[in-house]
User: Fold this.
Amino acid sequence: QVQLVESGGGLVQPGGSLRLSCAASGSIFSINAMGWYRQAPGKERELVAGITSGGSTNYADSVKGRFTISRDNAKNTVYLQMNSLKPEDTAVYYCSADVDSYNTRGLGTFRYWGQGTQVTVSS
Assistant:
């Protein structure tokens, strides 16, 4: 069993910053890609940023230059630094981890999800 626990969400003014964290724990052999997704009311979930085990990153066009994804492999943790926040960034943010678990070795990786954390950008 694998669990992802998120933290760092909250209310921030436009132009402000937040740092999200997501720590994976449990029967983990290794983690490949990790990422952040978000979903606003009435909209579909979208990829915000992703990062490979080697550190390669990709971002949605809407956040390029403002958000930075990083990871600490020793801690099985992924971060999302969000700067110059806009009201359009308001959403529930979910982290993901593609995990090779001790319990499912030989079956391929499985994508686990965090519980979601609310980010609200408003004055």
